[in-house]
Every structure is written in C-alpha cells, then in structure tokens.
Design goal:
- This protein is an alpha+beta fold and 260 residues long.
- The chain folds into 2 domains: 138 residues, 2-Layer Sandwich (Fructose-1,6-Bisphosphatase, Chain A, domain 1); 108 residues, D-Maltodextrin-Binding Protein, domain 2 (3-Layer(aba) Sandwich).
- The chain contains 8 helices and 15 strands.
- The strands form 3 sheets. Strands 4-3-5-6-7-8-9-10 form an 8-stranded mixed β-sheet, with helices on both faces. A 5-stranded mixed β-sheet has the order 12-11-13-15-14, with helices on both faces.
- Strand 7 and strand 8 form a beta hairpin.
- The longest helix has 23 residues.
Length: 260
C-alpha cells in the first residue's frame, strides 16, 4: 500500500466516523442550539467536536502532516496538509435537515490530492484519490455531458462576504442565460453534485478553502471544469469558484466573469 493510498483509506474511515458523530449530535427538525459567528454564519457544538476528532485522529495516524480546520485554523504544518470543514451546511444541520456533510481534503502544497465528503443523513460518501477517479458510495461518477446552458441547473452559493446587489445581479444573469438556479445551503455538497452529474454547475462569488478542499479533488477526478481556486491568495483568503460540466463551462465563465 502506498503512502497516499493509506491516507486515502484512512480519510474515508475517519470522515465516516466523524459523520456518525455529527449525525448523533444533529438537533431535531425545527430546533436550534447554534450560535452566530457572523451574519448567517452558524456555529454548533458539533462543529467543534467533529473538528477535534479529525485533528486528533489524523495527528495520531500521520504526525508529520499539517492540519487546517474551519474553526481552529492551521494547528500543524507539513508538506501534506489536511483541510477540514467539520460541518458544511451548518444552517441546514442546526435545523435538523439532512443536507449537511463533513468535508475532508488533503493537499500536497497547493494541489488537492484526496477528497472525502460524507453526508451521513443522506447516506452518501463522495471520495477521490488523485489519478484514481471519483466515486459516490463506491460507484464511479462523472460530470454531466450538458452542452446547452438553457438546459442546465446551476446551484448558487450565497454569502454575506459579497454585496447583496452583486449576488442578485449574478442570479439575474444565470436566469437570463436560460439556466435554472437553485440554492442548497452546502457548498461542498453542491460541488459534489456537479462531480456526480446531478447538477450542471456550482458558482459562488467568495468561498473559503475548507469549503472546497475535498471537492476540488473530487471534481478534478470526475472531469469537471473548475476555476483556479488556489491562484493568488485563495488558500488563505478564499476566492470565487465556478465548477461546471465541461460543455457549458466556457459559456458560464463568460456569463459570470469567473475565469477558468
């Protein structure tokens, strides 16, 4: 077993364990015990518990590897770096919804090489190891073959980090191009759905590394077209992201102004 294969198998195991913990801690529908970090930026007890579990277990398994979590920041450095979003889709999670996930990615420098996204309430695991394809519950997945933007479904990620008017203008352009917009409340799962061909694109005007680290590896192995998220200071300050079926990616790039 190679070192990367060992890391990949460990990542799937640990993300699954962390997802089970999150599922046990999920509030009942309609309830909420979350705190606000900022406008519509939620934090639950499960976020901290899941991140601690993954940080501790990865440190035991791979002590030379770095670690970066959404809640705790960069706590270890290394040429290989694990990046964790403990609960992506926290606004869904805290209301007892099923659409949330644990996102665990591994980067070699700025290159995503391993991605695991586990949505325990949906009973779905997306996974990819560089050069070995992408899977959903063990079955291979590929980005959609859509070539007509007027037949496309495009998920939009909303964030307070960009002005309301800018987001609404983006939405208007997507609708004017003939695509059907949707909002799902989880960037990681929206990107995973692009990789699986369930939707045709995901666009967000600003998103952080922990939201996309796992998805970038999965999208690459699934043949999706993806904007260069890691360019500039994307790893530290975030960037826009456009992930799409290759056949509509150029049209979406022109529509959104996000370069591929």
């Amino acid at each position: 077993m190679t070192a990367l294969t060992d890391r990949f198998e460990t990542a799937v195991q640990l993300a699954t364990e962390a997802a089970s913990l999150a599922l046990r801690m999920r509030p009942p529908p309609g309830a909420s015990s979350a705190k606000l970090k900022g406008a519509q930026d939620w934090l639950t007890e499960a976020d901290g518990a899941v991140e601690r579990l993954l940080s501790d277990r990865l440190a035991q398994a791979f002590p030379a590897d770095g670690f970066q979590g959404e809640e705790g920041g960069s706590t270890r450095t290394g040429s290989l770096r694990w990046v964790v979003d403990p609960i992506d889709g926290t606004a869904n999670f805290m209301r007892g919804s099923k659409r949330f996930c644990i996102s665990l990615g591994c980067l070699d420098g700025d290159t995503p090489i391993i991605g695991v996204i586990v949505a325990p309430a949906l009973e779905e695991t997306f996974a990819a190891l560089q050069g070995n394809g992408a899977t959903l519950n063990g079955a291979p997945i590929r980005a959609a073959e859509t070539t007509d933007l007027a037949r496309a479904t495009v998920e939009l990620g909303w964030s307070r980090r960009r002005p309301h008017a800018v987001f609404m203008a983006l939405t208007d352009r997507i609708i004017a191009a003939g695509a059907m917009p949707r909002l799902g409340g989880s960037g990681a799962l929206g990107l995973a759905d692009v990789a699986a061909g369930r939707i045709d694109a995901y666009i967000e005007l600003h998103i952080n590394l922990w939201d996309v680290a796992a998805a970038l590896a999965i999208l690459s192995e699934a043949g999706a077209a993806v904007s260069p998220f890691m360019s500039g200071n994307g790893a530290t300050a975030g960037n826009p992201i456009l992930a799409a079926a290759p056949g509509i990616a150029p049209a979406l790039s022109a529509t959104t102004g996000i370069a591929l």
